[in-house]
Each structure stands twice: as C-alpha cells, then as structure tokens.
What we know:
This is Cyclopropane fatty acid synthase. It holds the Pfam family DUF1365. Residues 255-283 are annotated as: Disordered. The protein has one domain (3-278). The longest helix is centred in the last third of the chain and has 18 residues, at 228-245. The strands form 2 sheets. It has an 11-stranded antiparallel β-sheet with strand order 10-11-12-13-1-2-5-7-8-9-14. It is an alpha+beta fold. It has helices spanning 78-89, 215-224, 228-245; strands spanning 14-25, 31-43, 55-57, 63-65, 98-102, 105-106, 114-120, 126-134, 140-145, 159-162, 176-184, 187-196, 199-212, 277-278.
Amino acid sequence: MNPARVEANVDPAAWLLTGQVMHERLRPKHHPFTYPVFCVRCDLDRLASLDSRWFGVDRWRPLSLHQRDHGPRDGSDLATWMRAQLSAAGVDAADGRIWLQAFPRVFGYAFNPVSFWFCHDIDGHLRALLAEVRNTFGDRHSYLLSAAGNAPITSETQLKCRKVLHVSPFCRVEGTYEFRVRETPNSALVSIDYHDADGLLIRTALGGRLKPLTRSTALAALIRQPLLTAGVVVRIHWQALRLVIKKAPFYGKHPAPSRTADAPTDRAAAGQPSAGAHPISSD
C-alpha cells in the first residue's frame, strides 16, 4: 500500500515509522529479542523538498538521509537508479511512486542492516520490494522481489529469494528468505523468515506506526532515541556475545560453502532467480 493513499488530503513527501525490530532465533537455543526503533520513509521523487531544522537530504541535520548511503552509493539520483533496476528486471508495472525506508543518519552516523524500497504502480499498489541488506563486515547485497506475474503485492503475498550474502557469523550462507509486507492506513510491517537446510531458523520483523515526518515528529523521535543508529551496532554485537555464551554454532567471517548434502529442490535454492526474485546490476 502506498502511504500517500492513507488520507486523501494527506500527501507528505516523507513518513516516520516508530515501532520495533523483532528477532527470534529458534535453534539450537531459543534466542528472542525486541528493540524500539524508528525509520524514515521518503518519496524518492520529492527528496529535494525535504529540508527542515531537524531533517534534511544530503546535508547535515540531526536526522538526515544521504543518497550515497543507498543504491549505487555514488550520490546519484536514487529514483532514476531504482527505475533502471525495475526496467532491467521486467517489472514494468511498478511505474508509480518509490518510497525508501531506512534508518536515518542520526547526528551524521548511520548503519542500516536492511533498507526497504517500496515500488508502486500509478494506482498506488505495491508491485516490487527491494531489500538492501548490509552486514557489519562492510558487505552488501540487494534482493529485488515481485509477485508471480508481477501481480500486486498484498499481505498474503510471499516473496522468496535465495540467501547469497553472509550476514551473521552464526549462520551459513544457504537457504532462503521469505518476505511479507503488511500495511494498514496507520501502520506498516515487513517480516522476514530465514530457512536454512534444516528448516525455519530465524524470524525477523520491523514494524510500527506511520505518521507524516514533520518537525515535531522528527524532534520527538530524536528525543526518545538520540543514539538510535549507534545503538543498532552496539546491540548487534551484544546479541552476538549472548549467542556465544549460549554456544550457538559459529561459522566466522568467511563461512564454509553450503552443505553439499542439501540438494536444492527449486530454482531459488539452486542459485537461479526464482519467480519474483531478480538480480541487481550494481552488486
């Protein structure tokens, strides 16, 4: 759902999502945690209009979004880049607005484990989702996903792709991700289930309430969580320490290849784009 359709008379260039990130590892030891977070969701065609005392684009503000942190990472226009990816993937139905949801830079610092690009058609229906994933080792990969036949993506749509980026030293590079997008007029949630060769291993979700990004909402978010992005990195390492204490399997920064006994059963597991999963030219 396009956030701009929430109310006929409300059409901000950016939204603030205030909520939580939820993570649950199911084995070999149960390991759940939940943290409060906030994100910005910006209309890529209207970035130039976003500038206030508290939030800006490509300039220093207490909260900011820098185009060089995303997509081609060269500071070029993100809407142009994303539309080129959609065209190359044949997702022609996504001819409407594109919204980028990410953790903002807070006092100049940012780290985004995952950023989401919501690509709509001209009627406001979601047609593609780009998940831009980063790890703490400096690597990144983008997964471009669409529904079968490029149909509109609903809360019932399951978007699958093969895992190709090493994210955690406690997981192998194998298996698949399953994404779901659930939105109401006032809330948004993206869930990611990670399945390795033995089945469902990790559930993750990022969701919360949507409000127009204004001077007052930006200031309120900053007051509540002034160390948001620094805290993301600290919490990643804290949870890693907890997994070490729980003696979770550790595969290191350069894990061994996937287990050869786990024969792929579909195109995604075989390393080929599955229905709705498209390669990104910049990776």
